[in-house]
Amino acid sequence: MPLPDGLAARFKVHYRCLNCERNITKTLDVPDVEDAPRGVDELLESAFFQNQRYFCDGCESFIGTLIGVSQWRPEEQCV
Ligand SMILES: [Zn+2]
Description:
Elements: E1 7-17, E2 23-31, H1 40-45, H2 47-50, E3 64-71
Antiparallel strand pairs: 1-2, 1-3
This protein binds zinc ion (ZN).
């Protein structure tokens, strides 16, 4: 499955929820705009990423620890 139209990149962002202590993976889509981050390093430095807010779907906590970010590959299933 290729990257959907209008996206510069897609990432998987891994958090650990401090409240319910589960590992949470979020799919993060980057719109295809000027200066859009296309790699993990660019993403981590971007204002776009810093504006992302963590939210736990399980316990509705807003407090989570960032564990890591990985680039979504087109051959992977979107989860
Ligand atoms: Zn939680």
